[in-house]
Amino acid sequence: MMKRKHVHAGLAVLIVTSLVGSTALADVDIEVSATLENPITETKQTDMAFGTIGVSPTGTGGPDEVITLEATSGTPVFNNLHGSAVDTLGTATVGNIEIASTATFQVDISYSASATLSDGSNTLTLDNITTNSTVSGYTHDGSVGTSNIYVGGDLTIPWDYVAGTYSTTNAGGSAITVTITYQ
Question: Coil, strand or helix: which one is 125?
Answer without folding.
Answer: strand
